[in-house]
């Protein structure tokens, strides 16, 4: 990361502090002497937003306590697993250290259907890399391996679109270059694809959690995302998302949907377009793929800012179509609204809690929190939602399980980490409004 980029991001944080802390505090302070009711109503309104958001977290956490098996594989008659194409997307030279491990795991370890597999590496590179020579040597040994250099490509979406039509499998598995997928992934995914679902999303598990405090935090966060939140969406609403990797698509579906090359989260965009066309998604937390997490705060910042900006793009584009579609019931529309419109509204308005409190202090001339039974309930209800999610994530975590201390670390950090991500969300919205769509590659 260059100094220019670093200082640019620091300036955005300064902008955030001005617009969401200092300026609102001053405005609320000016309002307080004339309309003190504004502070009171605003205070209870924002606190209630935190309560509602925590309520969503509890809904998913309690729902995820149960068994993950909704169809028992021993009692379901399945058609044979068809020929399958694995598409591994990569940007070289960024993934030169991990791409071979990913490919060899698929070629050597994954259980193959009778129709066989093909493995396509869809990559782009600014110049010739030594890794390309080693990959070509692998092609001679493994004829099912295909190298596809998407010349001129600038994104993962372009890489994927470049190879989709050439994929020969009836099932297409999408993987990032750092993913080591489980041996039984196809068998587990096929039981859902053969029973009415069009896309299956597996669990993504962090394999470098011990590298830094950042990766340790992300390791448990992913256990909460994939072992609790995504699974609960499938269990409660019979809908979920494709997270960009470890995804199993019916080939006819993904070839029709493809990927929008203007979206920063092409996976969420593809999920929404497929959902709006009536396609069904399922999350199976037993289909495990191990990946690498960012190890630095800056790496995490840029990864999550891209995700947040992409989600904002999808919120603007798809919220109204979600409300209008005939393919979702009212509960599924509620779920998607919490992921789209609510995400934007909450991330912006929740930041006004401290300006209201600071303005109240300045107006009263003393530091005092307006407390009553509802506020005490709100504090405990909100602050305990993160630790409870960590507890459920620990219960549902796959083996090998992260050390208990990392779950405790995540539980203690859950509230400040949420504030950190909410700040990123606002900065990402700022970037989208100013058409700043720079892609900072996550270092592997």
Based on the structure given, which CATH architecture of the largest domain is correct? Answer: Alpha-Beta Complex
What series of H and E elements makes up the topology? HHEHEHEHEEHEHEHHEHHHHHHH
Principal-axes shape call: globular
CATH topology of the largest domain: Spore Coat Polysaccharide Biosynthesis Protein SpsA, Chain A
What's the helix count?
Answer: 16
Structural class: alpha/beta
Sheet with most strands? 8 strands, mixed
Provide the domain count: 2
Radius of gyration: 23 Å
Straight-line distance between termini = 14 Å
Low-confidence stretches are none
> What is the count of β-strands?
8
Strand order of the largest sheet: 3-2-1-4-7-6-8-5
CATH homologous superfamily name of the largest domain?
Spore Coat Polysaccharide Biosynthesis Protein SpsA, Chain A
Kindly state the mean pLDDT as a whole number? Answer: 93
Report the top-level CATH class of the largest domain.
Answer: Alpha Beta
Strand % is 5-15%
Question: Helicity, in percent?
Answer: 55-70%
């Amino acid at each position: 990361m260059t100094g220019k980029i670093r200082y640019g991001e620091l300036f955005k944080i300064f902008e955030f502090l001005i617009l969401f802390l200092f300026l609102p505090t001053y405005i609320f302070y000016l309002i307080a002497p004339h309309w003190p009711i504004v502070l009171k109503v605003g205070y209870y309104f924002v606190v209630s937003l935190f309560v509602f958001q925590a309520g969503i977290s509890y809904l998913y956490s309690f729902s995820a306590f149960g068994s993950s098996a909704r169809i028992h594989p021993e009692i379901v008659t399945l058609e044979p697993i068809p020929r399958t194409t694995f598409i591994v997307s990569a940007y070289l030279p960024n993934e030169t250290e991990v791409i071979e491990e990913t490919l060899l795991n698929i070629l050597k370890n994954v259980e193959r259907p009778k129709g066989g597999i093909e493995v396509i590496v869809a990559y782009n590179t600014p110049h010739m890399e030594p890794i390309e020579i080693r990959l070509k040597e692998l092609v001679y040994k493994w004829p099912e391996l295909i190298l596809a250099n998407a010349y001129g490509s600038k994104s993962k979406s372009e890489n994927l679109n470049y190879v989709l039509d050439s994929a020969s499998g009836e099932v297409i598995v999408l993987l990032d270059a750092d993913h080591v997928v489980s041996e039984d992934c196809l068998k587990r995914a096929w039981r859902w694809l053969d029973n009415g679902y069009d896309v299956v999303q597996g669990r993504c598990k962090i394999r470098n959690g011990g590298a830094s405090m950042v990766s340790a935090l992300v390791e448990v966060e992913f256990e909460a995302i994939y072992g609790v939140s995504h699974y609960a969406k499938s269990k409660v609403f019979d809908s979920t998302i494709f997270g960009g990797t470890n995804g199993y698509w019916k080939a006819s579906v993904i070839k029709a949907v493809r990927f929008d090359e203007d979206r920063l989260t092409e996976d969420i965009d593809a999920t929404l377009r497929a959902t709006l066309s009536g396609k069904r998604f399922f999350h199976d937390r037993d289909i495990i793929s191990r990946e690498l997490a960012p190890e630095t705060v800056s790496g995490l910042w840029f990864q999550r800012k891209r995700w947040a900006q992409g989600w904002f793009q999808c919120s603007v584009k798809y919220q109204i179509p979600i409300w209008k579609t005939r393919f979702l019931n009212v509960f599924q529309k509620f779920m998607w609204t919490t992921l789209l419109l609510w995400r934007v509204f909450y991330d912006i308005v929740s930041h006004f809690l401290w300006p209201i409190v600071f303005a109240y202090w300045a107006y009263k001339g003393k530091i005092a929190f307006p407390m009553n039974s509802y506020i005490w309930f709100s504090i405990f209800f909100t602050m305990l939602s993160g630790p409870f999610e960590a507890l459920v994530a620990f219960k549902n975590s796959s083996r090998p399980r992260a050390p208990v201390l990392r779950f405790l670390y995540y539980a203690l950090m859950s509230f400040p980490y949420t504030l950190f991500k909410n700040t990123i969300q606002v900065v990402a919205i700022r970037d989208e409004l100013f058409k700043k769509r720079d892609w900072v590659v996550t270092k592997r």
